[in-house]
Amino acid sequence: MSILIKNGRLITSSEDCIADVFIEGETISSVGKDLNVKADEVIDAAGKFVFPGGIDPHVHLDMPFMGTFSSDNYETGTAAALHGGTTMVIDFVLQTQGKSLYSALEEWQGRSDGNALSDYSFHMAVTDFNEDTKKEISSMIEKEGITSFKTFMAYKGALMIDDRMMIGLMNEVRDKGGIVTVHATHGDIIDFLIAKHRGEGKLSPLYHYLSQPEITESEASGRFADMAYHTGVPAYIVHMTCEGALNEIRRATERDQKVFVETCIQYLLLDASLYEKDFEGAKWVMSPPLREKKDQKSLWAGINQGLVQVVGTDHCPFEWKKKLMGEKDFSKIPNGHPAIEHRMELLFSEGVKKGKISLNKFVEVTSTNAAKIFGMFPRKGSLGIGSDADLIIFDPEKKHKLSVKTHHMNVDYSAYEGWEVTGKVETVLLRGKNAVDKGKLNIGKGYGKFIKRNKVSKII
């Protein structure tokens, strides 16, 4: 099957031009002006942008949490991702303390194999680093193509590792060619504040936010950066939310250290005032929580300064009846919100259209940087010859409203209900297949491939 996309405005992280793209099979065969080729299908993209397919490196599909599971599985979650222009996701395999990494991998493969529509990969979350776990790191990288290892500095008793484990993991991952990522919040302070507020009868969603003040994130971000500097491991902080944490990364750059930073679309657009909506605030209970408007300004600035490389979602939706588990106690509200479908359109509308970021920066933070950091470039995140034919045709002027009535995520509310967006994903190609066209899904579960990733060597 061959496809010719004509007259589109091609936008990459470094280029902006009118050109044609010729696709043969699953890859891009040629790019140029007025290509004289025969194709099985011709798409006229005049007046439209052509972007590399989006990469969301932070999603939680079918994830066990607080006695339930996130409501999007690999079929529904990746279908929603495709509708929003995201062609590749990276999910998190969570090791159970006391068990092996491979036992966790097999559990997640049982959920993902044969079910994904988009391409996908895994981060391995290490929650119990010991001599047995240490021996599995090399095999994860060499055999499985899983080159990123997630750590938690919070959630004691389930996910959190101490600094000694962190240092040991960093040394091993460095030596084997991987990267260590982190949920950087100070778990002990958070646990203290949760207990304090509960003891005082302060149980509304607002106290979820007040139990995780900015210092809990800035302290942990700085400590993680210091440990990464000491060990020399490539390092990445997930879902950064605030000015204080970003200032710790500025401090790290002063010693010529590179710590990669991801923020999420909600932290750029939403703020903590939503927690004052009585229990409706549970819709936005996530960790870290939404912050203040001054933090939004810092994050936008951080993107343009090159301190923030990636915008993901931390997509982890729960149906409203599950959120109600915490109606009388904020600490029992499942953490997470739905965003996998809206990331690209929201960032374009609020970022590009409002002059906060350039088109090239939009492609950087939604696709190319994640591909480079996590060992998939130039196969992914590129419109280059030989790259996977993952691309989206985007109408930059079409206005529409986000709503639970129209989204494809498996959740019964929208975190962005009624939000008017300018810019619409029109067509999505995944490895040369017209996966979504004008809202119609053309592929079924199982089309998505697991993508083995390369070792971390020279990255941005």
Short description:
The chain has 460 residues and is an alpha/beta fold. It is 31% helix and 24% strand. Strands 1, 2, 3, 4, 5, 16, 17, 18 and 19 form a nine-stranded mixed β-sheet that branches. Strands 6-9-10-11-12-13-14-15 form an eight-stranded parallel β-sheet. Strands 7-8 form a two-stranded antiparallel sheet.
The CATH homologous superfamily is called Metal-dependent hydrolases
Strand content: 15-25%
Major sheet details: 9 strands, mixed
Low-confidence segments: none
Instruction: State the secondary-structure class.
Output: alpha/beta
* Discrete helix count: 13
Task: Identify the overall geometry.
Answer: globular
CATH architecture: Alpha-Beta Barrel
Q: Please tell me how large the radius of gyration is.
A: 21 Å
Structure description:
The protein has helices at 74-83, 101-112, 131-142, 163-176, 187-199, 206-210, 214-231, 243-253, 265-269, 293-305, 320-323, 343-352, 359-373, and strands at 2-11, 16-24, 27-32, 41-44, 49-52, 54-59, 64-65, 68-69, 86-94, 119-125, 148-152, 179-183, 235-237, 259-264, 310-312, 391-401, 420-430, 433-437, 440-441. By secondary structure, the chain is an alpha/beta fold. It has a single domain (52-373), classed as Metal-dependent hydrolases (TIM Barrel, Alpha-Beta Barrel). Strands 1, 2, 3, 4, 5, 16, 17, 18 and 19 form a 9-stranded mixed sheet that branches. The protein has an 8-stranded parallel sheet with strand order 6-9-10-11-12-13-14-15.
